[in-house]
Amino acid sequence: MVQRIFRIRKIGEDDVKILKKRIDIALAIIISLIALLIARLWFLQIHQGAEYSKLSESNRIRERFIAAPRGNVLDRKNKLLITNRPQFNVAWIQEDTPNPDQVIKNVAQILKVDISDLYERIRKGSDRPRYMSIRLKEDIDWKSLVYIENHHLDLPGIRIEVLPARDYLYGNLASHLIGYLAEINKEELSDHKWENYQIGDRIGKMGVEKLFEKELRGEKGQRFVEVDVLGFEQKHIKTQKPLPGNDIYLTLDIDMQLTAEEAMADKAGSVVAMDVKTGKVLVLVSSPPLRIKEFVGGIPAAIWKEMLNNPLHPLINKSIQGQYPPGSTYKIVTALAALSEQVITPETIFYCTGSLRFGNRRYGCWKRAGHGAANLHKALAESCDVYFYHVSQRLGVDTLARYANNLGLGLKTSINLEHEKGGLVPTSSWKLRRFKEPWQEGETLSIAIGQGFDLATPLQICQMTAAITNGGVLYRPQYIETIKSPEGVPLKSFTPIVDRKMPVSKGALARIKKALVSAVNDKHGTGGKAKLKTITVGGKTGTAQVVRLSQHKDLKEDEIPYKYRDHAWFTCFAPAEDPEIAVTVLVEHGGHGGSAAAPVAKKVLTRYFNIQEEDTESIDY
Amino acid sequence: MFQFDRRLVLNFDWALLIIVLIIAGTGLANLYSATYLGSVPGTPVYIKQFYYYVLACFLALAIISVDYRQLLSFNYPLYCFSILLLIIVLFFGTGAEIQRWINLGFFRLQPSEPAKLVMVITLASYYYRKDTNKGFSLKELIPPAFLTGIPFLLIVKQPDLGTALMFGFIFISMTLFVKLRWSTLGVLLGFCGSMIPLGWKFFLKPYQRQRILTLFNPENDPLGSGYHIIQSKIAVGSGLKFGKGYLKGTQGHLDFLPERHTDFAFSVWAEEWGFAGSLFLLACYFFFLFLGLNIALSARDKFGALLAFGIVSLIFWQTFINLAMVLGLLPVVGMPLPMFSYGGSSLITTLAGVAILFNIRMRRYMAPTSSPHLWSD
Question: For the ranges A161-170, A249-258, B35-44, B144-153, which has the lowest average pLDDT?
């Protein structure tokens, strides 16, 4: 390093001369360019100064965004479910306020809110430019609105902003499917996925609102306005209209959904109805519903906590996230497996004495007196447990699991919704993996009647029911009928997706269907409460034990603590001659499927076929 | 390692220091005016800028204390490091679509700023080493053109065309400053002439073309890309002879320009201080550049002269392009006004360059033998 510096030549006399010449040229260039700038300054400030002064006095153009109305949500009959309404918000532009503290104090008084709430919002918005507005309060009432508009001269910088807000025409109807909106947060804003969004924008955070955000959102418009020194708008210059979002037509039937939600109003659980020939979801209820509106402004911690701890679990979409033992509805799987594997014939008879001894344990039938001699038809119609205990020994757990999988159990249905659960269909290898224990033969008995490890979501059971009636085709459940542009041009349309076709004989399916019709229509059938006068319904009840507690054995249903009561299932289809619709009802801790769930299904069917039916009191077991 | 030499102080350029302090002072005062209404929590912009000045002063002291000729011994590692930063910013940079910054936690570094100064040092070193008095041939210009091309392309990729073009300006200025053969000059001129229409067609993005077209007729598109130009002209023009007064500029405090504390800082100044204030500031910049060229002329060796000239040209082009843009003479590109606009990377880089100028000036009479280190050789 030292050596190199030593070798640096001092500049020579000749070099200095050349250097001088070049630097003179550079200086000349600098002087002439600076002279150009000065000339320009003179031109702007002296020559045209008066004109620009006038412009600066009056011409202050501001660019304001106009929020685009979100797309509407409609049902399959074009009934409007969600639309938009104008919402009036109070916003504050700091830059236009010479005396912020006084103005904020006045606003707090007018709006009757705590001033610290306003300062909190200002603090949160403090990192945005001063000419951008900070929202102080959403959705103010008419009186405050009129007051602020009349006193706007005393409230410099305070603006009323009109935004389209969601108008839920049916309240919380189908809330778990629709989802909710909330203000975009900082993390999302910094994500490039949301790069066209701004602070204060609302985005879908769940369900349809989230999954179809792109379709629903539309495009913001812009308004250019001139403002005076205090920021008041003087005149519009140009408006670029916002483009509304696309409309989403659901496959849902609002009337049926309403009926189902009303029927479930005092219960926790789920109702799913599906078009058996396409997989279109007609009803998707999870009760109790979400209170959608409470999410918009950010949900208060107390309400959130209450929702989390609520024993009715309102936050869970029970149709796709609730996993319950399928109970006797699972006998459909066992029956199909037994017929297909030919381990029994339809005429095979087992004798039910009310229980079966297996190993050193007694496996009971729900009917303690026993069903007597039963063939498959009677066993399904009257839901005889002992019959299926016998059948399951001939099948084995793994064969049973294969048929369950073929009917969509144990696998997600792939409905386009978040956090779907897949339920559970146990196999011997699964148990070895999970518990490091071999499969016990006795466990197969429980599996055969949908107890034990078996878990399924209501949507899965509905899909299964549909598959039984449509010849073994597993259609993927879908809830979008069409997406149309605001002008009504269809952009996307529904096409059925077949996820699986079962290799089963038509005969086996026909027999099961017939038995299920008997379950609803025969004198001793368990699903009598879903019977319709004019339409033939077929269905299966299910009662899923939550816990097996001997101290509850002899208690009546309403004497058992709520959380220990059985889950009630009912799954059905109609009309039996040429099934169109499958309906599945689950009532959490509802007790018996026949008494708690079947009446709900009946109401949905009545609405679907648009017939008048009275609540028929049929045989209660 | 540094032994105090009285001549270092005797040759200190006090005039340059005073000019720099004046520009810095007016710049800070102007920043205060441009942003004081933003009484929001967090450190105000002018305070942050002041911190950057303090930081830059320490850096400047460090630079002054080491003989500038030492740069010759590590100019290439410096260059490589600077390129590395430019590559890093492309992969890990912050910013949604435009990746210009590396987030260091306490400071967002914009590597393209120091890269400009490193470019000057690199070119000065190269030209100094290859200087033969016969003038440079075209072949000898290939390596420096290559050295300039790498950061140029990396910055175009960010994309930041304005900053990238600065590399072109530095290269052209410094290359013309060293001796070229006439034939070389002719070929270069022809090449550049033919590149302009090609570049327009293939190189510029549509929005960049739009900005250039807008320049010639901003009123055609008053709310699109002409918006900045019109509003800036209104701010400057309405300043009249003596301005609206400090902190009284209305145009600057309304929302006409999001960059009023950075690239458009001068329009705030011109609005509040008028033609007189603008002339004053221009005069300061002129004296600064004049003193800088003087340092180049009086350098003890050719390396010093090249380096000083390069730094002067770097600051001059940035100043000119920024002012021409603010006054509506050039399209809007991201280009801060050195020492005046807010921005840590730009400020620290500029002051590092100024420190090198002081350094060259202080050591103008320093013979090789004057440094105690060099006795030993």
Answer: B35-44
Interface residue A26 vs chain B (CB under 8 A): yes
User: Ranked by mean pLDDT, which of A230-244, A252-266, A349-363, B254-268 comes out on top?
Assistant: A252-266
Low-confidence winner among A147-151, A292-296, A366-370, A612-616 (lowest mean pLDDT): A612-616
Q: What percentage of chain A exceeds 70 in pLDDT?
A: 89
- Is A55 close to B234, i.e. CB distance below 8 A? yes
Minimal Cβ distance to A44: which of B233, B251, B256: B233
Reported confidence tier of residue B1, pLDDT bands at 50, 70, 90: very low
The ranges assigned to domains in chain A are 2-58, 62-250, 254-290+315-609
Which of A110-124, A283-297, A386-400, B194-208 has the highest average model confidence (pLDDT)? Answer: A386-400
Q: Which of B240, B253, B327 is facing A49, going by the closest CB pair?
A: B240
- Mutate: best of B67, B259, B297, B311, partner A, most A CBs <10 A: B297
If DSSP states are collapsed to H, E and C, what string results for chain B? CCCCCHHHHHCCCHHHHHHHHHHHHHHHHHHHHHHCCCCCCCCCHHHHHHHHHHHHHHHHHHHHHCCHHHHHHHHHHHHHHHHHHHHHHHHHCECCCCCCEEECCCCEECCHHHHHHHHHHHHHHHHHHHCCCCCECCHHHHHHHHHHHHHHHHHHCCCCHHHHHHHHHHHHHHHHHCCECHHHHHHHHHHHHHHHHHHHHHHCCHHHHHHHHHHHCHHHCCCCCHHHHHHHHHHHHCCCCCCCCCCCCHHHHCCCCCCCCCCCHHHHHHHHHHHHHHHHHHHHHHHHHHHHHHHHHHCCEHHHHHHHHHHHHHHHHHHHHHHHHHCCCCCCCCCCCCCCCCCHHHHHHHHHHHHHHHHHHHCCCCCHHHCHHHHCC
Same fold for the pair A62-250 and A254-290+315-609: no
Cβ–Cβ of B235/A56 closer than 8 Å?
Answer: yes
Picking from B173, B231, B250, the nearest residue to A229 by CB comes out as: B250
Which site among A30, A36, A196 would you substitute to test the B interface, given the most B Cβ atoms closer than 10 Å to its Cβ?
A30
CA–CA separation, A349 vs A341, rounded Å? 17
Query: Out of A5, A46, A56, whose CB is closest to B69?
Result: A5
Distance from CA of A89 to the nearest CA of B (A): 22
* pLDDT beyond 50 at A380: yes
Q: Write the ipTM.
A: 0.90
Name chain A contacts of B285, Cβ cutoff 8 Å.
34
d(CA B218, CA B207): 14
Q: Which CATH architecture has domain A254-290+315-609?
A: 3-Layer(aba) Sandwich (3.40)
Q: Is A351 on the interface with B (CB under 8 A)?
A: no
- Encode pLDDT of B247-284 as tens digits: 877 765 555 555 677 888 999 899 999 999 999 999 99
Q: Provide the shortest C-alpha distance from residue B72 to chain A (in Å).
A: 8
Beta carbon pairs, A and B, within 8 Å: 180
Scanning the structure block, which residue is given the tokens 């699109």? Answer: B224
Residues of chain A with C-beta less than 8 angstroms from the C-beta of B239? 45, 49
List chain B residues with CB under 8 Å of A1: 70, 73
* Partner residue facing B236 (CB), from A44, A62, A129: A44
- Contact at CB, B227 and A56, closer than 8 angstroms: no
The answer to whether residue A230 scores a pLDDT higher than 70 is no
Name the CATH architecture for the domain at A62-250.
Answer: Alpha-Beta Complex (3.90)
Are the beta carbons of A253 and A76 closer than 8 angstroms?
yes
A425 and A412 Cβ atoms separated by less than 8 Å: no
Residue A411, pLDDT > 60, answer: yes
